[in-house]
Design goal:
By secondary structure, this protein is mainly α. 59% of the residues lie in helices and 0% in strands. α3 (67-78) crosses α9 (185-202). The longest helix is centred in the first third of the chain and has 28 residues, at 13-40. Belongs to the transglycosylase Slt family.
Length: 217
């Protein structure tokens, strides 16, 4: 029988406390580094547009508006580049297509249509989010409703209605969003992933901006 075990030194309470304190310190440092990593992924220009986003979301959704969702949407659309242009013709922070921008200007945003103007783009984009939000009547939760809103923004409200009509759980985005109602497979993949990227990937970068929408649904 080995005698090594009988001579194993016991750790003193002081050593144990020091180990716990060191572990807690390392955990705090890890959280700090993670927060810095998230902040580093946020474009510097995002803070520049925060007051505009706050004003428009409060106006359209109330003082307790989920501002981080809108900020995350801009992140997904343009990475906060006000001059962003897509290959298919979308423009500005909120990537308005010309026809949609003209329509928004005619019925909701008086004055010249200026999708490359950050103030106009944010104002019109948040208005459009609210317009879609009011037309999503079937949703199991706020998360599901916002997911349908965002999918509508990306691919059209009519296609979301068709997905819901084909679904056995029309209020559940996880069950309904993946349904292809007859669009090109690439368009379906984009529409399905759009809301998930905004609420799951980008929204956590803006949690200090206001109330978030719980995710996943």
């Amino acid at each position: 029988m080995s005698t090594r075990a009988s001579h194993t030194p016991q750790r003193s309470p002081l050593v144990t406390r020091r180990g716990c304190a060191l572990g807690a310190l390392l955990f705090i440092v890890l959280l700090w580094l993670l927060s810095l990593s998230a902040f580093a992924q946020t474009p510097p220009t995002a803070q520049q547009y925060r007051p505009l986003i706050a004003r428009e979301t409060a106006f359209r959704f109330g003082v307790d508006s989920p501002m981080p969702v809108v900020a995350a949407q801009i992140m997904q659309e343009s990475k906060f580049n006000p001059l962003a242009r897509s290959p298919v013709g979308a423009q500005g922070l909120m990537q308005f297509m010309p026809a949609t921008a003209t329509w928004a200007g005619e019925i909701a945003i008086p004055g010249p249509v200026q999708p490359l103007n950050p103030a106009w783009s944010i104002r019109a984009g948040v208005w459009y989010d609210r317009w879609l939000y009011d037309r999503i009547k079937t949703a199991n939760s706020e998360c599901d409703r916002w997911a349908f809103v965002l999918q509508s923004y990306n691919s059209g409200l009519g296609w979301v209605y068709k997905r819901q009509k084909l679904s056995s759980q029309p209020g559940n985005y996880a069950a309904t969003g993946p349904i292809n109602p007859g669009v090109h497979p690439a368009s379906q993949r984009e529409a399905q992933g759009y809301a998930l990227a905004i609420m799951g990937r980008w929204q956590p970068l803006f949690t200090t901006w206001g109330r978030t929408v719980p995710f996943p649904c």
